[in-house]
User: Fold this.
Amino acid sequence: MTDDVAGQVIKAEQDRINCLLDVDPATFDRLHADEYRLCNPTGAVWTKSEYLDLLTSGRVAYRELRLTSDVDAIVGTDVVVLRYQCVIELTVDGADIPRHEAWHTDVYTNADGTWRCVWSQATGIMDLPPAAP
Assistant:
């Protein structure tokens, strides 16, 4: 049962990634809970409506958003937490954000038999400078 639920939510996450790349408002609405919040790598927090407005206006445009690791899942009764690494390349307000790696943590809840993302956190993976001698 746990593996089935994890598989369903991982599939929903891939669909969510595709809707961000394709700017598909109907799928976006279906896969994001009304109380959805994204904490992006800059630390800014966007609501569901703010994020969708940024996507549909073109102010945020993903050129690449691709998983580069397996997806780890913690499965509860009505909550699933996903964690994975990905590569992201995008434009924000006309500024190109170079291709970079990030960790993603996404929390899904089950309401009325539908898994929806309620929280997303993206954390950029930085190359650290060499240690001082």
Observations:
- Residues 2-22 form the longest helix (21 residues).
- The chain has a mean pLDDT of 93.
- DSSP finds three helices and seven strands in the chain.
